[in-house]
Design goal:
By secondary structure, the protein is an alpha/beta fold. It is built from 11 helices and 9 strands. The protein has a 7-stranded mixed beta sheet, with helices on both faces. The chain has a two-stranded antiparallel sheet with strand order 1-2. Helix 7 packs parallel to helix 8. The longest helix has 15 residues.
């Protein structure tokens, strides 16, 4: 079997279940199997595949058909032009989350203290530190499994450099910060239950934000003033439909200069507020 034949077979098997990008999915899976790039793969379409490569590729195609994200199959996901390791212990980094990083970077100065809360794979904290090496960046997560993935990425991309905390939100995080950034669980319980019933492989712990999806966001907004320096910013990624409710919660706890940024599809995706201090 040649590379072209394998890609065509993989595409035809993926397409009925995942019609959006079956050819791309097949190419990415095969490139990973061969330890190659898509560009090199497409330049070698007539080359033959070994039996072991064919078997590994078809296993990946089978996993994709069953619903596994391509990133879980290849264990790679690009985020902010960096290559992150991912597996089923963490969410797959999304392109929309890059808007959260860009917004946070707009507030960061050399020496700023930054906390990435609910860090997961570490894509936010690591992208910030990689872009602003003079910033002091820490990260926390309640999941030791997630922190293990984070540490692997931090070691591979930054040779460490980021302090981590195993913490239920802010409960076990010491010190104060100039910026707290978070992509917390913000799906509703019913949305998470449906995904679980559909065998969605991402960890429910990183998805389920309660009845209205705002349980964690509300707790963070209330607790963050004790962990922010005066004039510090709190930033979230959230669902576009949640933005007005989050804005009201920010105002309730005396945050000012509230801004909302749109994602790649033009939907409200990131919200930030500045905490000046208690009256």
């Amino acid at each position: 079997m040649t590379i072209r034949e394998a890609i065509n077979i993989g595409t035809s098997q993926i397409a009925p279940r995942w019609p959006e990008t079956p050819y791309l999915d097949a190419c990415v899976i095969l490139a990973s199997v061969l330890g190659s790039t898509r560009a090199k793969l497409l330049a070698s379409l007539s080359d033959p595949l070994s039996q072991s490569a064919c078997e590994a590729f078809m296993q990946g195609v089978s996993e994709r058909r069953a619903g596994s994200p391509v990133a879980y199959i290849t264990h790679h996901q690009e985020f902010y032009a960096l290559d992150f390791y991912v597996d089923k212990r963490v969410l797959v980094p999304r392109a929309d989350t890059e808007i959260l990083v860009e917004t946070a970077l707009g507030f960061i100065k050399p020496g700023s203290r930054v906390l990435d809360l609910c860090t997961g794979s570490g894509c936010i904290a690591i992208a910030i530190k990689h872009t602003e090496p003079e910033a002091w960046v820490e990260a926390s997560d309640i999941s030791e499994d997630a922190l293990a993935v984070f540490r692997r990425n931090a070691d591979e991309i930054l040779s460490g450099q980021i302090v981590t905390h195993k913490s239920d939100l802010l409960n076990s995080v010491p010190g104060k910060f100039d910026i707290i950034v978070s992509n917390p669980p913000y799906l509703t319980h019913s949305e998470t239950s449906k995904m679980k019933n559909d065998n969605w492989p991402e960890p429910p712990l990183a998805l389920d934000g309660g009845a209205d999806g705002l349980d964690f966001i509300q707790c963070i907004i209330a607790a963050a003033p004790d962990h922010l320096n005066s004039g510090g910013y709190l930033l979230f990624e959230a669902d576009p439909a949640q933005m007005e409710a989050i804005k009201l919660k920010f105002e309730k706890y005396k945050y000012n200069d509230i801004i909302i940024r749109k994602d790649l599809a033009g939907r409200d995706r990131v919200i930030a507020g500045c905490y000046i201090g208690k009256d």
